[in-house]
Specification:
By secondary structure, the protein is of the alpha/beta class. It folds into 3 domains: 152 residues, Rossmann fold, CATH 3.40.50; 161 residues, no CATH class; 168 residues, no CATH class. The chain has 16 helices and 22 strands. The strands form 5 sheets. Strands 15, 16, 17, 18, 19, 20 and 21 form a 7-stranded mixed beta sheet that branches. Strands 6-13-10-7-9-8 form a 6-stranded parallel beta sheet. It has a 5-stranded parallel beta sheet with strand order 2-3-1-4-5, sandwiched between helices. Helix 1 crosses helix 2, helix 7 packs across helix 13 and helix 15 runs antiparallel to helix 16. The two termini are 34 Å apart.
Length: 653
Amino acid sequence: MSMEMVAALGKDNGFRIIVLIAGVTTMLVGQSAERMAHLRAGAGGYDWVMLTNPRDDAHGQLDSLVQEWRHDGAGAQGSRVLLITVMKNTRHLGPLTTLLQGVNLTGIPALIFDDEADQASLNTRPNDPRPSAVYSAIEALRTSLPHHTLLQYTATPQAPLLISRIDSLSADFAELISPGLGYTGGSTFFEQRLDLVSTIPPNEIFDHTNLPTDPPQSLIDALQVFFVAVAAKYVETGSPNGHRSMLIHPHQRQAVHNAFLQWTEQLKADWVATISSQGDPDRPGLLAEFANAHAELARSVTDLPPFDAIAAVLRIAIGRTIPTLVNSNNGQEIPWANGYAHILVGGEKLGRGYTVKGLTVTYMPRGPGGWTADTIQQRARFFGYHAKPTDNYLDYCRVRLHQDVRDAYVAYIEHEKDMRTQIRHNRGSSLKDLKRAFFLDRQLRPTRHNIMLQLYDRPRLSSGWLEQRVPQAAPENGALNSQLVAGLMQAIQLRPDQQFGRHFFADVSLRDLLENFLIPFSCPDERDEIPLCAIRLTLADVADRDPAATCRVIFMDHGGDLRERSIDDGGSITLQQGRSSSADPNRYPGDRHVRVNADDRVTLQIHTVRVVRRQDNPPGPPIIAEVIAARVPALAIYLPPPLQRDMIVQRNN
């Protein structure tokens, strides 16, 4: 809908060529072309000239349109618009580029949509002087349109965000698209409606090389729940409209698809035969199984028709359901027009972009594979418009998953919310200024590594503490940081710690501290900059959730002697002092114990140190060979366990 709207606005504002790069499968291209045809239907007349995967034989149409635009003026009201839908592969992008190059398009405004922009478009050889094929083909297409804007669309922006910022496909800005009424996504299934999601028993998830002869019980249960849901619609309407469907996504191997399709077709045939025969001894037992499926649905569907009514139409509901194999070895489209109920069995072709109409039951024993977040998310075809005011069937939905995949979706929710929040906050600024730092569970990687010029780091806090290691790397030996410390000290009222009187503290607004102190505080060395970036991200999230949150700021050894720290061979220091070696039971326990003992409070220690380099002086102790920084601030920050979250940080690329 967003692409349709932008295309219509483009037409109104003088764009005359619109190219939709529409996925890597014929299913996606067909789906996109069908939807973009709404523009023609809405406008009436012949304002929209639409081509799909055009070749040289479209030269005449293009040349005629260009002459029209030249004569009328490119922005003239009522001028026709050329909308081209093209598959995202070199076999189709190449001929389109040749077609466009055959006409002088200088001064003709063009708009390019790259749908599923994180798939196939990006350069998979960023360190190679020869870019990958589709990336090169898109670059050539862009060159053939000398006056164009490229808009990338995706539900999973990890890859476009993590490519090099100097890459030509690194975006200048980003806008969030919010779903319409009735959309049910990750929060619905994994936070609000946990009753709709269950896991498949581990003993029913099979290795593709050792498939059993008989179907797993969890598949049988899922099919029976689906057929009861379909039968309910027959009871309610007699002849249902629209669609209800089931998705079976077992594995990437086609042999596994074939096995699940055969099980489905055999179960379907057996059940129809058994239910149709009143004298079949297996009929009562089978109906009892469907009664259990009915009871399962009744947990969430309050107005589910009684089972007697369901049983009366089960034979029709099962018999008229159409199973379809959907993979690269089966080129046929899904025959939506041939029936109300469908069961789709497949793999990658059902893993991205394609809308499964009326998806009600999902059965996905497939594991997480490489634990790649965007790939796992794109397989969630069960996200969608299940709760529209005109067609609310969310209560009928059931999702059965591999346990690891379920865990991955739960972890992904926080990651997605964080990305969207950061993009929203960045609105109006250059996307290239957005810090590439996001919450992400340690088991997951954000996207495939082969599109990144520079990988990311995963900061790990030791016992919850971040200790600055290279404070002397700050510009001018920390002069700016010293000014920040002085300004903070003037803005707060310090008082001595009751337990450790040499340390003074104050409780301050976390948001104010973050914005006025921690963000401008300079830590240029990556050993400090990367973990501090993670800390800032965490604290910003805490402050967004709780604007009243505070942080305890502790000035270590306030008013006392300057602490001295020696650098090691790598140029770093050990900032925090350990516990006292004294035998006194009240001995100093060490700096790490100087913090707030609360699960929701952050502690910031501010140290002022002299950084020196020592050298051996046998047989005596080492001596100071050089003063690296006479007086420099250094930070230690404690995050309590509830705030210690996994994240990725990509340095400036």
